[in-house]
């Protein structure tokens, strides 16, 4: 059976994770946050004392990367081995180094296989998969493909509201740096052929969730 995959891509701070999770919850679908896997690998590399700038070391750390992620949007948790890293992977220190592990082609191949296995196992009645390359590389045949965007100012403001004690300009700067690094690896700023753009600049959270559900319904 072809899994009913809703593929969602977008830049940092576009709200893809929180919006995708809520869409999944309302539709009774599974939810897969692929960025969490790249973050978990960055956490694992740091915890193992590996230099994330050294691609060969990052690749060798894949062998001991025991990663588990829940696909239930209500009981969402990320584990590396026995450690619950759900909160730790959101740390600005991880955001600062995650692009270095994500740019390694062997890392991407390894994680993409993992994502496809999760999609195949947990796709009934559907699964919302979000990241940077889901609509183009991970699931280009998905029946629903969405690019979730928002203006840079709005994204920086949303991100800094999440991170207590940080100024919008610092957060905006880090976000821009991370997007620029990530954009060298995959294009998530423009919608590929057949991908529907949802621009949330003028929408609140609930309206964005409704807009995404609208796109899903119109394709069913
Ligand atoms: O989505 P999130 O901001 O948590 O993603 C963290 C990082 O993981 C991104 O900055 C990017 O380097 C990487 N990533 C990726 N491909 C994906 C999802 C995330 O390279 N599909």
TrEMBL record:
Enzyme class: transferase
Annotated residues for binding of ATP: 10-18
Alphabetized UniProt keyword annotations: ATP-binding, Cytoplasm, Kinase, Nucleotide-binding, Transferase
Enzyme Commission no: 2.7.4.25
Alphabetized InterPro entries for the sequence: Cytidylate_kin, Cytidylate_kinase_dom, P-loop_NTPase
Keyword Transferase in record: yes
Domain of life, per lineage: Bacteria
Subcellular location: Cytoplasm
Domain Cytidylate kinase: 6-217
CDD domains per record: CMPK
Database matches in NCBIfam families: cmk
Family note: Belongs to the cytidylate kinase family. Type 1 subfamily.
Protein name: Cytidylate kinase
